[in-house]
Amino acid sequence: MKYLMLLTALCCSVNLFAQYDGPEWKTPSKESQAYNEYRNKSTVPPYGLAKVKALVKSIPWADDETARMDNKTYLALSLREKFTYVMIHPEISSQNCDPIPPVQDEDKKIFGRLPDAFSEANWSERQINFLNSNRDSVMAIIRESVIRSKRMGVNYKNAIQEINGREMIPFLIDTYNTDKKDHDILSLLMLLMMKSEYTPFMTSQSYRKLYGPNADFRAYIDFNGANEELILKRAADFYSTIRK
What we know:
Elements lengths: L1 H18 L10 H10 L9 H9 L13 H6 L2 H10 L3 E2 L15 E3 L9 E2 L2 H9 L1 H15 L4 H9 L6 H9 L5 H13 L3 H4 L2 H7 L8 E3 L2 H18 L2
Antiparallel strand pairs: 1-3, 2-4
C-alpha cells in the first residue's frame, strides 16, 4: 500500500512539472503566508482525544485509498468521541495533482469558498451522515469548543457548511467580531445565505462575482470595511427572516 501511495505521489510530481512551464511563481508576502497558515489550521477537539488518536493510529489503509475505522469500534464510540474522530480523521484519500500557484495578498481577500478541511482527504459518506444526523449536537459541541479555545478551525467551518448550520449565524458574527481576523467566517456566512437562496444576497454584486458563471474556486472580493459591514448586515437580516 505504501508503494502504491509513493508511486501515485511520484506520478503527480511528474505531472505537475510537465504541466507547468511558465515563469517562477511569485512568493507571497510574509503577511499573506501567515494568513494562509492561519486559515488552513484545524481545531483539534479534546473529547476522548487520546483514545481516538490511538484508534486512528491502528487503522490500516485499504486498497481503495480509504482508512476507515471498523464499524464495531466506531459504533462503540460516544457521540463526542465520534465528533473528534470526524474532525481529525477523514476516511477517504483524494489526490490532487494539478499545480496551483500560491495566492497573493491572501490576508486582504474574502473568498467565496472555504479552504479544504483536510489536505488531499475527504469525509466519507458515513462521516457526513454522522454530522447531518446529529446536527443539533454538532452545532452545540462546536459552540462549546470555540468558546473554550477562542478559535474556529477550518474543519469546524466546513462542518457548519455541510450541515447548513444557519442557526449559528449570530454565534458566527460574534466570533468574527472578537478580533475580525478570520475572514473565512465571512465566507461561511455568504455560503449559508447562498444555500438558502436568500434573495438580497442572490441578486447582489458580491454573489455574481463570487458564484456567478465566470467565477472560479478562488474567486474573492476585497477585504475592506464596506464589504465586511455589508456581509455582516446581510447575514443578520437573513437570520431575522428564518427566526420568524
